[in-house]
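Thread: quick sanity check before group meeting

JM: Hey all, I'm pulling together slides for Thursday and realized we never actually wrote out the predicted structure for the chain we discussed last week. Dropping the sequence here so it's in one place. If anyone has concerns about the input, flag it before I start.
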Amino acid sequence: MAIGIHNMQPAAGSTHRRKRVGRGGGSGHGKTSTRGHKGNKSRGQINPNFEGGQTPLHRRLPQLRGFKPVNKKFYALVNLYILEENFEEGTTITPELLVERGILRDIHAGLKVLGTGEVTKSLTVHAQKFSQTAEEKLKAAGGTTTVLAARRR
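JM (edit): ok, ran it. Output follows.
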C-alpha cells in the first residue's frame, strides 16, 4: 500500500466512536440517554450563574445608586494663581497657549478658569467658562475675559 496524505489515518486505538444517545433501549444509551433520573441536570441546561441555592453573587453585591451621564463634559481646569505665576502683564491667554506651554495636557471639552489665588497683572483670558470669582478678580486687576464657543469633541 502506497503511503501518502490521501490514505493517512490515526493510530489504532487512539480514537473512539461518537456516543449516540436516545436511540432505543437496545443501544444501551436509550430511555434516560445517560442523564440519570430526574433533576435539573437531566432536563436541560443549568443557569451558569446558579450557585446551588446559595445567595447568588448578583444579590450579594450592593447596588450602585444614581446614574452616570453618557455625554458629560469634562473641562480642563486652571486656577488664577497658575496664570499669575506663568504669564507676564498684558498676555493674551488661550487654551492652546496653555497646552503649548505645558500647563495643560489636554483641553477636553474646553477650558474653565477657577478663582483660587490672586491676580495682580492685567491679563486677557479666552476660555469656555469662568467661575464667578475668577471673572471678578481678573476684571478687578484690569484684565478682560472672553467666553469662547464650546468645543466639539
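AS: nice. The chain has a mean pLDDT of 92. Residues 76-147 form a domain with the Ribosomal Protein L15; Chain: K; domain 2 fold (CATH 3.100.10.10).
JM: adding both to the slides.
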